[in-house]
């Protein structure tokens, strides 16, 4: 499983899974796969009724969001977002990368009744973006990757907030209360796992504590699921309350399974869509809104917001980039994929035909962004390798006075 720690291989596997899902859905075995995806598992004693597809998107994907939350907490504590000056410019760029795609989508879908799909083109797939940078970006300096990582983490935070606030219709407060109790217990037990001088747990096996944490994590997921809040938020909450050092070890252990099994399985499941037998004119405005807003909106939003933010902050932020580097980051930001597919399922849950069209739009829009980003990244990497641009961050000029490229 160690190979799946590689951003490069994780991105290739994710793409292969999505392509396979789309191909099989439109083959002879497509109807059987779609029927299996819709099969429900019922546990009457627990009041649980969940389809196979939702088991992946609501259940397994919570582990991915747990990893995202732990990494976000680390970046805020000791990483690239641990001060206002470091976080300001990536935050401005991330907000531009959310506002502009949402605005473009709303312009295209105005009056159609599908305006509620505006969150779909606002997401960035951190695994894909970093994977593409690793594949095509040999020679690009570390500061570009750091900026992309910071922007993608903040983008994920916005996605989490959107899911929590815009895709929760009714809430059962009693279940949320139970979830709060299990979260507190989970947090407390995680702090017992940290080695402490003279503490008895450092000299005894800690498997009972680990098992207890798994039980508490599953209970938290169950209570959040039953509360009416989207169940992936349980993964976010668990990641945020877990002690930092044990959290880092947990991410190290879970990351290969997330990259190698969970994310490809979700991509495969989400891409199980029969291509609609309709003309281009019959496709919904939601399809066109996502297709245009995802690659173009991200490119414009991140580039313009990052450049304007750099003009204001200058070198004070310590992470300013030229427009050429911002184009690299912005083009990579247009690969929505995993989180966009999840947003699509949530936004158009009332109409399966629009869900299918939205899925195809996300795949096509992300595909366009992949081609553009491969071109931008390769071009920029060639400039750095040729010596035309300085790789040293110390030599990077003030964005307010530097040449644009």
From TrEMBL:
<feature type="transmembrane region" description="Helical">
    <location>
        <begin position="173"/>
        <end position="193"/>
    </location>
</feature>
<dbReference type="GO" id="GO:0015385">
    <property type="term" value="F:sodium:proton antiporter activity"/>
</dbReference>
<feature type="transmembrane region" description="Helical">
    <location>
        <begin position="259"/>
        <end position="280"/>
    </location>
</feature>
<protein>
    <recommendedName>
        <fullName>Na(+)/H(+) antiporter NhaA</fullName>
    </recommendedName>
</protein>
<dbReference type="Pfam" id="PF06965">
    <property type="entry name" value="Na_H_antiport_1"/>
</dbReference>
<feature type="transmembrane region" description="Helical">
    <location>
        <begin position="360"/>
        <end position="379"/>
    </location>
</feature>
<dbReference type="GO" id="GO:0006885">
    <property type="term" value="P:regulation of pH"/>
</dbReference>
<comment type="similarity">
    <text>Belongs to the NhaA Na(+)/H(+) (TC 2.A.33) antiporter family.</text>
</comment>
<feature type="transmembrane region" description="Helical">
    <location>
        <begin position="84"/>
        <end position="108"/>
    </location>
</feature>
<keyword id="KW-0812">Transmembrane</keyword>
<keyword id="KW-1003">Cell membrane</keyword>
<keyword id="KW-0813">Transport</keyword>
<feature type="transmembrane region" description="Helical">
    <location>
        <begin position="205"/>
        <end position="223"/>
    </location>
</feature>
<comment type="function">
    <text>Na(+)/H(+) antiporter that extrudes sodium in exchange for external protons.</text>
</comment>
<feature type="transmembrane region" description="Helical">
    <location>
        <begin position="286"/>
        <end position="314"/>
    </location>
</feature>
<feature type="transmembrane region" description="Helical">
    <location>
        <begin position="146"/>
        <end position="167"/>
    </location>
</feature>
<keyword id="KW-1133">Transmembrane helix</keyword>
<feature type="transmembrane region" description="Helical">
    <location>
        <begin position="326"/>
        <end position="348"/>
    </location>
</feature>
<dbReference type="InterPro" id="IPR004670">
    <property type="entry name" value="NhaA"/>
</dbReference>
<dbReference type="InterPro" id="IPR023171">
    <property type="entry name" value="Na/H_antiporter_dom_sf"/>
</dbReference>
<keyword id="KW-0739">Sodium transport</keyword>
<dbReference type="GO" id="GO:0005886">
    <property type="term" value="C:plasma membrane"/>
</dbReference>
<feature type="transmembrane region" description="Helical">
    <location>
        <begin position="120"/>
        <end position="137"/>
    </location>
</feature>
<keyword id="KW-0915">Sodium</keyword>
<feature type="transmembrane region" description="Helical">
    <location>
        <begin position="229"/>
        <end position="247"/>
    </location>
</feature>
<keyword id="KW-0050">Antiport</keyword>
<feature type="transmembrane region" description="Helical">
    <location>
        <begin position="51"/>
        <end position="72"/>
    </location>
</feature>
<keyword id="KW-0406">Ion transport</keyword>
<keyword id="KW-0472">Membrane</keyword>
């Amino acid at each position: 499983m160690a190979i799946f720690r590689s951003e490069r291989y994780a991105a290739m596997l994710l793409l292969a899974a999505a392509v396979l899902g789309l191909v099989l859905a439109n083959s002879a075995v497509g109807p059987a796969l779609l029927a299996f995806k819709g099969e429900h598992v019922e546990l009457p004693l627990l009041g649980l009724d969940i389809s196979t597809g939702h088991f992946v998107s609501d259940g397994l994907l919570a582990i991915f969001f747990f990893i995202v939350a732990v990494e976000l907490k680390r970046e805020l504590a000791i990483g690239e977002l641990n001060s206002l000056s470091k976080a300001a410019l990536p935050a401005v760029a991330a907000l531009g990368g959310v506002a502009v795609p949402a605005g473009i989508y709303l312009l295209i879908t105005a009056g159609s009744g599908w305006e509620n799909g505006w969150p779909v083109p606002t997401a960035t797939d951190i695994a894909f973006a970093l994977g593409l940078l690793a594949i095509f970006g040999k020679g690009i300096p570390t500061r570009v990757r750091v900026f992309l990582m910071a922007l993608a983490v903040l983008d994920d935070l916005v996605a989490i907030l959107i899911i929590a606030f815009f895709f929760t219709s009714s809430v059962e407060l009693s279940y949320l209360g139970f979830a709060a109790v299990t979260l507190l217990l989970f947090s407390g037990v995680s702090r017992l796992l940290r080695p402490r001088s003279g503490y008895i747990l450092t000299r005894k096996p800690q498997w009972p504590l680990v098992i207890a944490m798994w039980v508490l994590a599953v209970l938290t997921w169950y209570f959040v699921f039953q509360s009416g809040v989207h169940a992936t938020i349980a993964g976010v909450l668990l990641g945020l309350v877990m002690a930092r050092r044990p959290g880092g070890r947990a991410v190290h252990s879970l990351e290969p399974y997330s990259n190698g099994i969970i994310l490809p399985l979700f991509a495969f499941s989400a891409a199980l869509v029969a291509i609609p037998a309709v003309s281009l004119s019959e496709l919904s405005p939601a399809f066109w809104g996502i297709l245009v807003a995802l690659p173009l909106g991200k490119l414009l939003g991140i580039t313009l917001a990052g450049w304007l933010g750099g003009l204001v902050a200058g070198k004070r932020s310590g992470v300013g980039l030229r427009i050429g580097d911002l184009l690299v980051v912005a083009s990579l930001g247009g690969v929505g994929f995993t989180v966009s597919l999840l947003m699509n399922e949530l936004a158009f849950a009332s109409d399966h035909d629009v869900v299918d069209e939205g899925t195809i739009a996300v795949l096509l829009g992300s595909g366009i962004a992949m081609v553009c980003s491969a071109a931008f990244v390769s071009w920029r990497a060639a400039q750095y390798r040729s010596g035309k641009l300085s790789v040293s961050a110390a030599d990077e000029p003030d964005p307010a006075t530097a040449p644009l490229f």
